[in-house]
Amino acid sequence: MKTIIITGASGFIGRAIAVALADEETFLVLHYGGDQERAEETLKLVEEQGGQGEIYQADLTDTEACRALIQDTKEKHGQLDGLVNNAGVNRDALAVRMKEEDYDFVIQVNQKAPFILMQEAGKIMMRQRSGSIVNISSIVGLKGNPGQINYAAAKAALIAMSKTLAMELGSRGVRVNCIAPGFIETPMTAALSEKIQKQILKEIPLRRYGQPEEVANLAKFLMSDDAKYITGQTYSIDGGMNR
Questions:
Q1: CA 115 to CA 76: how far, in whole Å?
Q2: How much is the pTM?
Q3: Distances in Å between the alpha carbon of 102 and those of 94, 131, 189?
């Protein structure tokens, strides 16, 4: 049975990835930061799909908690076959007005935590000579976005880290890939004003938001043996915005 960790599994994209990966041959460790109720809802959906799993709370601003997430999983299940770095936060402001603590917080969760998680997972996967890591970046990491210099920096770093780690771990049979979603339909996009939504949709050639399940389907493919000759790649799933 495969063991896969998904960070941020209480969120909409994390939940969709968990449901997509749920099957009788996979055990999912569903990480959450603070919303236990939503994490439990994700677990219930996984089980309804015939999958197995457990929820795991960890503060991703705590380096030791990140290490414990990987180490506890390995100790309990004996292996680690996959890691999906999906958890993310934002603290938006124009660069000239951004507070240093808001910059640091976003970098800590969106860039340093994935580094620690990949570092610890990489050690296990190298010894196993197998494993797949999928990092959820953002179109913002490819194109930038006003008011999100911290978020853009972290997501761009995640792409570069994925390419680098793919080169370092490839000879041991470990794959590392990245997904850069565009605007995905969630309560966050639904809360935007009608004027802003119209502006966004004009920039998307397909003229619609993506669905969490569309990101999840790509993550499932990259995690599978069907993608066993794919590593070091970044895939935009954004309706054609990155062109």
A1: 22
A2: 0.95
A3: 11, 34, 22
What would you report as the CA-atom Rg of the chain, rounded to the nearest whole angstrom?
17
Do 32 and 65 contact (CB within 8 A), yes or no? no
Q: With left for phi above 0 and alpha for psi between -120 and 50, is residue 125 left, alpha or beta?
A: alpha
Sheet with strand 174-181: strands edge to edge: 52-57, 26-32, 2-6, 82-85, 131-136, 174-181, 234-237
Catalytic residues: 151
CB 242 within 8 A of CB 182: yes
3-state secondary structure of 27: strand
pLDDT tens digits along 155-173: 999 999 999 999 999 999 9
Q: At what angle do helices 149-169 and 113-128 cross, to 10 degrees?
A: 10
Helices (H) and strands (E) in the chain, counts: 10, 7
- Reported as a single tens digit per residue, the pLDDT across 33-46 is 989 999 999 999 99
